Every structure is written in C-alpha cells, then in structure tokens.
Known about the structure:
2 copies of one chain form a homodimer.
Chain A: E1 7-12, H1 16-27, H2 29-36, E2 40-46, E3 61-62, H3 65-70, E4 75-78, H4 86-95, E5 99-102, H5 105-122, E6 126-127, H6 139-145, E7 151-157, H7 160-172, H8 176-185, H9 194-197, H10 200-214, E8 224-225, H11 233-241, E9 244-257, E10 260-273, E11 285-292, E12 296-303, H12 307-326, E13 349-359, H13 364-374, E14 379-386, E15 390-397, E16 400-401, H14 402-413, E17 418-427
Parallel strand pairs in A: 1-2, 1-4, 2-3, 4-5, 5-6, 8-10, 10-17
Antiparallel strand pairs in A: 7-9, 7-11, 9-10, 11-12, 13-15, 13-16, 13-17, 14-15
Helix pairs in contact in A: 1-12, 4-5, 5-10, 7-8, 13-14
Amino acid sequence: MPGRKPIKVALLGCGTVGTEVVRLLTDQAADLTARVGAPVELAGIAVRKPNKHREVPAELLTTDVDALVESDVDVVVEVVGGIEPARTWLLKALKAGKSVVTANKALLAEHSGELFEAADAAGADLYFEAAVAGAIPLLRPLRESLAGDRITRVMGIVNGTTNFILSGMDSTGAGYAETLEEATRLGYAEADPTADVDGFDAASKAAILASLAFHSRVTAADVHREGIAGVSAADIAAAKGLGRTVKLLAICERVTDNGTDSISVRVHPAMIPRSHPLAGVNGAFNAVFVEADAAGEMMFYGKGAGGAPTASAVLGDLVAVARNKVVSGRGPRESAYAALPVRPMGHASTKYHISLDVADKPGVLSQVAAVFAEHDVSIAAVRQEGRVDDASLVIVTHAATDAALRSTVDKIGGLPVVREVVSVMRVEGEES
Amino acid sequence: MPGRKPIKVALLGCGTVGTEVVRLLTDQAADLTARVGAPVELAGIAVRKPNKHREVPAELLTTDVDALVESDVDVVVEVVGGIEPARTWLLKALKAGKSVVTANKALLAEHSGELFEAADAAGADLYFEAAVAGAIPLLRPLRESLAGDRITRVMGIVNGTTNFILSGMDSTGAGYAETLEEATRLGYAEADPTADVDGFDAASKAAILASLAFHSRVTAADVHREGIAGVSAADIAAAKGLGRTVKLLAICERVTDNGTDSISVRVHPAMIPRSHPLAGVNGAFNAVFVEADAAGEMMFYGKGAGGAPTASAVLGDLVAVARNKVVSGRGPRESAYAALPVRPMGHASTKYHISLDVADKPGVLSQVAAVFAEHDVSIAAVRQEGRVDDASLVIVTHAATDAALRSTVDKIGGLPVVREVVSVMRVEGEES
C-alpha cells in the first residue's frame, strides 16, 4: 500500500520476548503491511544497556524511555514486566493518545482500571493477549467472541513451571523439592521460583481472566492463592489411587445465591479426574476450560510461555491496534459494568479429598464421620484399608463451603484416633 | 446508557438457532446494553410462516424480507442457511451499509469475496464466527489473534454428525450403515445425511478456515472432499490394531516448495494416533488444531453445533458489530492479499496405511515392496501375519504425493498374490 503513512511502534524492553517481536516485525514486514493496510515500523527500542543487544538494529536502541514514548509513535509495546516503571510509562503513553500492547500480567492484575480509564479518556486502545496463557488466543475470545453469552466458569492451567513440576511428580513419584531442583536445572524454573511455585503468577492471570469473564474489576489481591510447595509425593500417590492427578488450577466462578451473583476466584492445587481434558495437559503447556450458558464447554490449549509464542500474541494485538489506527476504529474498552463482588475463600464451594492414618480399632469411622456431620459436610465416598496395626482412611466430600471443610479437617486432625492427616486436597472438575 | 440510540437488528430466519438468538437477546438485554454501550433492539424477524413461530413476539414477525432489510435497521443477522436467497439478501444489506452477522457456511465458502467487497465498499462489517465449529471461538483467533504470525496448518474435526458416527463405530465395532441408522434414530444425523457424511459441510468449513489462515480466497470447489461412507469396520479395526482411531478431518496446509507457498486443503477420513489431542474428541464435539511458526501448536475445543452454542457465536459477533457502530469503528476486513494457489490433491503430501490379504507364500513381500519402490514411495512400517492359508500384510508409508500413493495402491491391487485390498486410509497427526 504505497503512500500509506506507517504505523510507528515503540518497543519497551528487549529480552526473550522483545527480541522475538523485533524478529517477527522484520521477517514478516510485507505480510504485516498487507494485513494492517499500512507499514508497521519499529521506531525505537528502549533498553537499559544498549551494548547488550547486538541482535537488534543498534540505531533503534535508546535508554531514554520517556523521549521514545513522547516521540511521534502511534503504539507502545511493553514487554518489560513488573509494575513500576511500566505503569508510569504506559499511563504516559495512553494519556498522549498512543495505543498500548502489553504482556505485563502483574501490571494488568493490579492497575487495569487506571490503565483502561486513561485509554478511554484519550481514545486509545489497550490490548494484552500475551499477559495470560502466552500464545493461546484466550482473552480475545473472552472479551469478544463470548460477549453475547454468560460465562459461568473459567478453570485453567496457566503456569507452565508449576505444571512441569506437578507433571514430573506424577510421572516419577518423586517429591516436590527434588522435582523443583530438576526443573531449575532444565531451565523450567527460575533461580528464585517464588512467583511461580507460590502461585503469584497464576493469581495475576486469574484476576485478569475473572475481570474479563465477569465484567468486573478483580485484582490480584482479590485472588485466594495457594502454591504447590505443600504438595507431597503422598498427595500425588493418593490422587493416583483414585484415578486423579494434581494440577495447580486458576478458577474463576460465577456464584448465584438467591438471585445475586458474586465471584469466587482462586488459585490452588487440586485433584482432577484423569479423564478431564485438563488432566492431559502436561509439561510447559497451558490450557483453559471455559463454560458459558449458551456456548457450553470450551477448551483452549497451547504454549503458555516462551519468547516466540508470547511474541505471536503481542504481534496479533499489534496488528489489531494498527488496523484500528488505519480505519480510525477502536478496540473493545473495559467492561466492568457488572461490578460483581468477590466472595471470601471461606464462602467458596469446594470439595475435599482427605487421607488419614488412623488407629485400626472399632468406632474410628464413626468418630470421624461425626465430625463431618457436625460441620454439615456430606461425605461422597469413603475407603478404609486395614494394615498391620493401623489403617488408612480416605474420604472424599460433596461440595461444601471451604470454611466448613477447613474446620472439619482441623477438628479431625485433633482426634486421638487419627495418627496423621496424610493429605488434604481440593477436588475439581467433577460433576457434583 | 440512557439516551443512546439503540442498535436495530433484523433477524432473517427463526429455526433452532434463530429462536435461541431471540431468547438471548431478550434474556440478556441489560448485559448486552452495558457491553455494547447502547441498547440492542430486535426490529423484526423474517420467516416464511409467521403462524409457526409462537415462541417469539408475533409483532416482530414478517414475511417481507426485503422490506425488513431495507428498513432503518443497523445490522442484519442471517440464520437461514443455503446460498440463495441468503446471498441476495445479504448483498442488499451490505450495499445499504448495514453490517451482517451470518452463520451461513455454504454461502461464505462460495461467495465470501463478493460479500467482503460489498461490505468494504459500504464501510459495513461482515462477521461469521458461527459458520465454523459452532460456539468455539475459532475464526476471531485466526483473523485477529494470529494476525501477526504465520499459520502453517489447521487440522480439525468440524462436523459433529460424522464424528458421532465414527466414534460409534470405534466403540462398538459396528459397520457404517448400522451406525448411521443409529445416529439418524437419535437425531444426530438428518433424514438426508448427504451434506454431512459426504463431507460437503466439512469442505465448506475447510474453505473458510483456509481463506482466513492463509489470507487467500479459497472456495468449497477448491477443497478435495471424501466422505465417510467408505469407512468400513475393517478400517476401524485396522486403525485400532495400530493404536490409532479414524476421524473425518478438515486439513488446511501451507506447502512451501522452493520458496514458493501454496495451499493444500482437503477433507477426508484419516487414521490418527490415539495419543493425538484430536483422538479424544468424541461424539458431537468439534476441535481444531492450529500450528503457527511463532505460536506453536494450539487446540480449540467445544460444541460444534446446536441452537444455543451457535446462537452464542452469533451474539458474540452481534456485540462486536454493534460496538463498532457505537464507536464508528470497523471490524477486520477481508485479508486475501497472499492469493496463494491451491494445489491439486495429487500433489498433496500424505501417508497411507494399507492393509492387504495376501497369499502366504515366499516372495509376496518382495513383490509388494517392489511396487512401492517403483513409485518412489518409501515404507515406514510393515507387519505381516500368517494365517492358515493366507496372510495379512499391513504397510504404513512415509509421506509421498497422494498421486504416487494412489498409483501404488492401484498397482498392488492388481498383483496376483494380493487377494484383497482390505483397507486403505490416510494417516495424519504423526511426526514425519
């Protein structure tokens, strides 16, 4: 399209993802021009140490982020990560009417409201497909394809590191510490794995998914978060014995109580049946299950991280934003009109799997069962197996409030006939 | 949003899908208004026999399609199906600047070029998510999320009827005719099942997928099409013996030969490994596997048909189109700039599984193998099993051109030592 004014892009950050963005922008320049209706031109790349980036054109590198953002660029692409200074840069860009494409889940999970308001005031676009589940087109379907439906549940594996570790524990029977070490050695876990193994990364993604699915502002602080450090080889073995496997799940649910809707949003390990579509998602892959009133069940599966997959998502957004510039259009804005409240975890409805070592004498089951009854928790299945001198007792509950289930477990742990609470884990993905 | 002028919608057709569209528009009116930024108002429903539609408001029904399309509506939603008169109606709507949402795969697979041109000339939108894979958000990801990537392959199960029949044959061992009868009885196959079982429906969808994935105009006539009527219990048994299952696949491939790209697009039954993600897609579900250079492998899974799922996809498009009206924006236009040629089926690269009944005497394998060598087809695996008086010989080839494989099979069928060609089927979904 000769004569069409190019869409000028500022890239903030040039790590694994940024380098891939530069490569795709260069390799696919002709295709992108045809798809956008105008050339897409990289105007500058902001980095901290220009001499460390020999793989990108030196003349584009700058350390002056503010000058780059304030220059005549049309779009700012941010792949730096972290809340500050990314927040300040992107607010500046949006206020100046520049559209923003970002892969920054932490920032979106904290400050999406502020960013959307700035975008809206200036008529700019804010896209962030790469922030959740890497290359898997997931946010656009939630924001747009399902915009005419009522989403009831989003449940997914959105963190590759923890999925790699849990898949490994499941296949080798090894413990958590040992498997984490292996994951670190292979480069699947970072030197400081906290953000992944403690569920912070997944919680940010859960907040973003819940916001979009339920048209409400949900931040990372609203998300109940439990990591995988407490998952033991015994938990995995217990799951196996029941035809289940353990996954770290991000769960966003619409809960309707007496006609009033609220949201439960949480990240925790859970047993799911091996027949569930998410059970087969192994290693560094991500997958997200979505349920909507009219559409029914859907699953989205693909690579959740990595330079090239994440860059693919960034480029898809960049094409959308650039097309909007060309036709003077606008992408979808924030949709938070429903403003549903987030319920505390204690009020969430869950099911527990509890595995106990108990004394092998008469009356044990009745004592344990009495505690469940007392807390109004109904039992779905029991398996008791005698051993030489003690017995193992496995109980799976029906759905109850998480608070009732926790109190039940606490009280059972204190019963004299209970030698050890071997494993306590939530159960998901089953018909109630 | 009080005071905002409503977006007026004309609905053409009120069968299973149309009725659900009306229901969702009514039930979710408040949500839709909030999501769109203006009320979405049903202005009229065109049907042939108004007295047969007691489930929708009588005052909206009309038999005069032209008057409805020519009235002051903003969007025309078409769920009638078939090429004419839908084509004439939608061209008229688009030419008058009205945006169109359609679920009509046959029409899109034949006339998308003409429709897009009319939309473009008038600045109107053309959306058709519901035309392929029902409720699964698939076209929007292809058109938008992956717009910055290079898609290399789309392979999917896009017809529920044939998948129901093949799943049934696989689980019961019954033959095709018997299983089709069962599917008809249960309502999974229509009285005249031709469009499904002969692959016409899947071929229309393949054409649409190939057009979007490869930025080229591909019509149903370009698609090589084989249905499932020739799939025998012997084929299914042969597949099972090799840890495979048989699926009707729609396959769209980018083929690069000496730096020049072309497209292979085809619908045919094929064996896939039971470990492949598509192998677990049973019954009336659809799933589509997409491979792109940067994003890697992705899968989209969900309900492929039915009133509510299809209506969900229609509503998602309607919200997008209505939002575009509100912000004076535009959705993505036709992207056919690449104009890649479609290669004839004979030039497609495929692998065959061939099962033969042969005489049990020395030299049989060498005679058969010689025919493969003669056609330059290399053999990946052979399994020979002697029986009382004859033997079974199973051969799986490496990839070769379909023409070479066909000639090989023809010639082998004529060898005196070959008593019967028991099963010939393509093999997909394996590493080459």
